[in-house]
Amino acid sequence: MADPCPDDHDRTGARIAAYRKRAGLTQRGLAQRIPYSYSLLRHVEAGHKRASPQLTAAVARALGVPVAALTGSSVHTLHPDRVAALVRPIREALDVYDLPVDAYLPQAPAFELTAAADGLCQDVRAARLQLAAAALPSLLLDLFVACRERPTTELWRSLASTCRSAHDVATKLGYQDLAALALDRMGWAAERASDPVLAAIRQYKRALSYRSPSAQHHIGLRMVAEGHRLLGGRVADGLAARAVAGQLHLGAAVLAARAADVPLMESHLAQATELAERSGEIGHVHWLSFGPANVSAHETFARLELRQFDAAYAAARAVRPPRGWATSRRAAHLVDQARAELETGRTDAALASLSLARRLAPQQTRFHPRVRETVQGLLHIRRSSPHALSRLAAWVGV
């Protein structure tokens, strides 16, 4: 008999049933741990209904197993026509932040919710966007309820962190309106956590939304200034504040480059460089990637904006990825490096950089706007396209 849900990743429902039984749970027992009904779970396990990414993520968290164990695959390639369905539940979860959620109460203790929030940040840094997007709705609902029913500073911080992850996923998938909504919720949670460092990170993220060519860059620079004000005198005292202050300077450098204000860009790069030399590479503070490598990566982007292509290429070549550098950060830099290579006549190197970015972070790279621009540039220059370039162009939809 044919599988009634052939698109359901080779019967995710059957894997859910197997892992549920291994955990010693009945269907009703598992249903009580997730925000989905016993009836739906029963139909999913039987293969009569598809297991949505959100349900799969909720079950994985309840059973303490990776989502990939239930889907049967460790690598997912997001297709553009499925992104909207994946994103919609995130928007709905963020929309109900101030409404009663009566369907269930979170069963997980606070430390498990905090660990889940950290795990979500790890997925985003590793560019596992589908896994992160699938896990977001249920974790957001859990944290909204937990912060209402048993609020603690740590839970509010975890909620702010999860809203930040929602922003990062939405940004990487091209949903800027959803990214702005997630930052509003992040600010709401950070205020209740009384955490100025998280609030400053939010200002950094807000400022980056003004880096498009047509944006009012001075508004983004005001947000950077507000981030520094929130940090106050903490920069001299703590590694976390120094890392966030450095990121704020890097964001300002990019905005200044967009506004063609070279002196301001150079000033912010110099201040970020000084902080990076004092702090070294930081990858464990609020899941930031601040340090000398990230300074050079941002300089690459800024020089590209100013059309200083030789300087951009030199900055790109100066990047020395530290051990544990976030996959998402490394792939994004490779995209910028490819643009610098294209503009300096190194077309083979540009194609190699884009291909490596694709291998490292396929979901992120596919939706990156500069990838499309660079591929179009390569196709224009190389009238006889190699097979690798043709395949890459088809993959990104050029």
From TrEMBL:
<dbReference type="InterPro" id="IPR001387">
    <property type="entry name" value="Cro/C1-type_HTH"/>
</dbReference>
<protein>
    <submittedName>
        <fullName>Helix-turn-helix transcriptional regulator</fullName>
    </submittedName>
</protein>
<feature type="domain" description="HTH cro/C1-type">
    <location>
        <begin position="16"/>
        <end position="70"/>
    </location>
</feature>
<dbReference type="InterPro" id="IPR010982">
    <property type="entry name" value="Lambda_DNA-bd_dom_sf"/>
</dbReference>
<dbReference type="Pfam" id="PF13560">
    <property type="entry name" value="HTH_31"/>
</dbReference>
